Amino acid sequence: MSDQATQDFAKSKALMRRGAEFLGSKYAIMCGAMSWVSERNLVSAISNAGGFGIIACGAMTPDLLDREIAATRALTDKPFGVNLITMHPDLTDLIAVCAKHDVTHVVLAGGIPPKGSVEAIKAFGAKVIVFAPTLALAKKLLRSGGDALVIEGMEAGGHIGPVSTSVLAQEFLPEIGEDHLVFVAGGIGRGEAIAGYLEMGAVGVQLGTRFACATESIAHPDFKKAFFRANARDAVASVQVDARLPVIPVRALKNKGTEAFTGKQRDVAGVLDRKEIEMAEAQLQIEHYWAGALRRAVIDGDVENGSLMAGQSVGMVKAEEPVATIIADLMGQCEEALQRH
Ligand SMILES: Cc1cc2nc3c(=O)[nH]c(=O)nc-3n(C[C@H](O)[C@H](O)[C@H](O)COP(=O)(O)O)c2cc1C
User: Fold this and answer.
1) How many angstroms is it from 58 CA to the middle of ligand 1?
2) Would you state the pLDDT for residue 7?
3) Atom 4 in ligand 1: residue holding the nearest Cα
4) In angstroms, what is the span from residue 206 Cα to ligand 1's centroid?
5) Are residues 132 and 242 in the same domain?
6) Confidence class of residue 171 from pLDDT cuts 50, 70 and 90?
C-alpha cells in the first residue's frame, strides 16, 4: 500500500463503499441525531466535512422542523438526514415536511415505526433508516421497507438498550451484514474501533458523543467543559429504584440531577406505600422528571441539574475541535489499523 493510498484512506473507503453510496457522502460516518445539539450548524458541518449529518427533530413542531431543514440546506449542498421520534404526536405532519423539502434520508427512532409511516416516507423517494434491538425485529423492519439498520449498544449516550455494542455486532453482522446495510453505533471514540466493525461486516458507523462538543456545535461552553472533564465511568445509565415505577434507561454524566432523581424515586415510592397517590400519577411524576432537562444542559449550560446525555466514549473527548479534524483523525486511525491487519 503506497503512502498516497494511506492518505486517501483507500482501505477504509473500500470497506465503507456500500455505506457511503447509500448515504451519498464521502465517508460512511454518521453523526447520530442529538436533540438540541444536532441542528443546522453541526449537521451542515458534518456533511460538509464528508460525513453524514442528521437533524434531530426531537419534540420540534412541524413548523420548526420546516425552518431547520431549510436553514441546514442553506449551509450545505451535501446530503443530510432527519431523525424523527416514532411517538411524536405529529409524526405524519413531520413526514410531510420532509417530503416538502425532498429530504433524502429519514431515520425513525424511539420505537417500532407506526403503521404507514415507512410507506409515507418511501412514497416521496426517501430512504428509511431504522433501529432494532433484536435480530428478529431487524429482519422484520428490513422486510417491511427499512433500507438500512443502525445497531446501537448500551455504551451510547442518550436512550439505550441493555446490550453492548460488541455483542450486538457479533449477533447482527455475520447474520445480516452481507445482504443488508448495517451501521454500528455506541461507544465509538477512535478509528481503530471503526476498522474493527467494518472488518466484521458493518458498512459504516454512527457517533454522537465524539461530535457533541465540536467547534461547530452550539452546545453551551459549560456543557462542553463537563464533557472534557469526564471519564468513561462518569457516563452512567439511569437507575430504577422501585419495580412499580418504570425508568427509561438513559446514559448521561453523573451530576446533582441524577442524584436527586434517585431521591425523587424513593420519595414517590414512599408516597405510594402510604397510598397517598394513585399509581398512574406516581408513574407520571417519574416520567416527567427529566422534561426539558436536556435543553437546560445543552442550551442554558445548567450542568448541575440538567441532563448531560453522554456515552462512555466521553473520556476520549478532551478538547473542542472542528468537525473536519475529528473526521480526519477517525479516518486516519481507521486506515492505519486496517493497514496493520
Ligand atoms: C446529547 C445526546 C442526545 C441524543 N439525542 C438523540 C435523539 O434525539 N434521537 C436519537 O435517535 N438519538 C439520540 N442520541 C443518540 C445518538 O444519535 C447516537 O446514536 C449515540 O450518541 C451514539 O453513541 P455514542 O454516544 O457512544 O457515540 C443522543 C445522544 C447524545 C449524546
Assistant:
1) 11
2) 77
3) 34
4) 9
5) no
6) very high
Q: Indicate the pairing of strand 204-207 with strand 29-31.
A: parallel
User: What cell was used for 176?
Assistant: 445480516
**169 and 265 housed in the same domain:** no
- CA 129 remoteness from chain centre: 12
Q: Which residue has the higher pLDDT, 278 or 2?
A: 278
* 185 ligand 1 Cβ < 6 A: yes
Please indicate, yes or no, whether residues 187 and 208 belong to a single structural domain of this protein: yes
Q: Is residue 265 part of a domain?
A: yes
Provide the grid cell at 198: 467494518
Q: Kindly state whether residues 266 and 292 are assigned to the same domain.
A: yes
Nearest CA to ligand 1 atom 19: 32
pLDDT score of 2? 52
208 alpha carbon to ligand 1 midpoint, in Å? 5
**Each residue's pLDDT tens digit, 199-224:** 999 999 999 999 999 999 999 999 99
User: Could you tell me if 162 and 298 lie in one domain?
Assistant: no
Q: Distance, CA 201 to ligand 1 centroid (Å)?
A: 22
Ligand 1 contact, 191 CB (< 6 A):
no
Count of C-beta atoms within a 10 Å radius of residue 206: 27
Q: Tens digits of per-residue pLDDT, 12-52?
A: 999 999 999 999 999 999 999 999 999 999 999 999 999 99
Together in a domain, 114 and 200? yes
Q: Do 80 and 55 contact (CB within 8 A), yes or no?
A: yes
